[in-house]
Amino acid sequence: MRVNGSRSNGWDGERYGMGEFWPVPDVLAYLTGRWRVARSVRDLASGEQGEFTGTTVFTAEENGGLLEGGGLLQGGGLLHHESGTFVWQGVARPAERTLRFLPGPGGTADVRFADGRPFHDLDLTSGRHVADHPCAADLYRGEFTVRDPDHWRTVWHVRGPAKDLVLRTDYAREAETGYAREV
After folding, report:
1. Which domains does the chain have, with CATH numbers?
2. Dihedral angle at the C-alpha atoms of 80, 173, 16, 107, nearest 10 degrees?
3. 6-12 — which CB contacts under 8 Å span 24+ positions?
4. 55-94: per-residue pLDDT in tens?
5. Against a cut of 0.90, is the pTM above it?
6. Cα-atom radius of gyration of the chain, to the nearest Å?
7. Cα(41)–Cα(48) distance, rounded to whole angstroms?
8. Which of 22, 24, 97, 116 is deepest in the core (most CB within 10 A)?
């Protein structure tokens, strides 16, 4: 089966295996659980490289919760919490971030920053999705691809007057959690 895709330009990420993507009918159900994360960060202008390793946990928020600053979360969804170690120029530092994945139409998600600001939409029904996020003078373009019930990837290209970065993140589901055990 070949779903949604050819590799046509510099924005397209690598496809898994033999060019196939794994369709996800409900992105929130798929993401729920704990994932091992390995991210490479390349600064195309300077040639510098870094890496992040850690975990991302997607947990359900059935009754909402609190945003940074005390605002109430609405609409349920998943809280995405990533934590680990980021190494840049030989210096290791702890790193973490929190995102909010709200339910969207037809099994999609509306991804928000922890403070509620919009980030991007996410539709993995074909197993692949490209999303843009303009931020001041920069453009963040992310490609999301799903290989199977336990593996997915994001590739973010960040371009702007002072940025030319590629962030490639591979996610592997930790054993016995989430969607893969329910299918």
Report:
1. 27-182 (2.40.128.20)
2. -50
3. 10/157, 11/130, 11/141, 11/143, 11/157, 12/143
4. 999 998 755 554 443 333 456 799 999 999 999 999 999 9
5. no
6. 16
7. 8
8. 24
